[in-house]
Design a protein that fits this description.
Distance between the termini: 46 Å
Strand content: under 5%
Mean pLDDT: 95
Structural class: mainly alpha
Oligomer: single chain
Shape: globular
Largest sheet: none
CATH topology of the largest domain: Leucine-rich Repeat Variant
Number of strands: 0
Number of domains: 2
Low-confidence stretches: none
Length: about 210
């Protein structure tokens, strides 16, 4: 697994189906009453981790239903720190699609401008997060924001940026297939082949 993930951090070898109930049990046995303590626990698990599963546990605590009230715009600095230091899809993507996405839906007027900034960030994984932040929004997707985040990375040559663009469009196509076709046509050759294939995976190209 370590080689597959290209990780310098070793694995204990605990598969996800076993890791999740362990984390859930710890959350139930040791509830955290204050958001400050909750953030401290997440940071400690993440930044003091010796094994990658500890970072998965930190994500489990971050996203636990019990702590939904703690997930507000105030934790964006925490999320940014996790994303920048995680810097790989297995750690970043769940934070992007679930946690950042959840906060975006809850506080769109506050978070939308931040996603505009993130879409132009120097860090690839912050840009990827902005692109993926609406993957679970479905009919609540802010298309203008989606377009802004994608267009900021249209010229990117990195696989993870191009894959994110295609994935975000593929998710949006589940509720607005004609809009995705139109956007793909509009961007034309500015859209990479990888992004185009992902975007149209379940839609198909427009018919002339």
């Amino acid at each position: 697994m370590q080689a597959y993930m290209k990780s310098t951090m070793p694995y204990r070898g605990v598969p996800t189906p076993r890791n999740r109930p362990i984390v859930a049990g710890a959350i139930a046995a040791h509830p955290l009453a204050a958001s400050r303590v909750w953030e401290e626990v997440i940071r400690s698990l993440w930044f003091d981790a010796s094994y990658r599963e500890e970072r998965y546990a930190a994500i489990g605590i971050l996203q636990a239903r019990r702590y939904r009230a703690f997930r507000t715009p105030e934790i964006l600095p925490l999320l940014r720190d996790l994303i920048v230091s995680g810097a790989w899809w297995d750690l970043v993507d769940g934070i992007a699609t679930q946690t950042v996405g959840e906060i975006l839906v809850g506080w769109p007027s506050l978070i939308t401008p931040e996603m505009h900034r993130w879409s132009r960030d120097a860090n690839l994984w912050i840009r990827r997060t902005a692109i993926l932040s609406q993957n679970h929004a479905r009919l609540r997707t802010d298309e203008t924001l989606l377009v802004v985040c994608i267009e900021a990375s249209l010229a990117a040559r990195d696989f993870f940026a191009r894959k994110a663009i295609g994935w975000a469009l593929r998710e949006y196509a589940k509720v607005r297939p004609e809009r995705v076709r139109a956007l793909v046509d509009q961007w034309g050759e500015r859209l990479s082949g990888l992004s185009r294939r992902e975007a149209l995976k379940h839609v198909g190209p427009s018919v002339e």
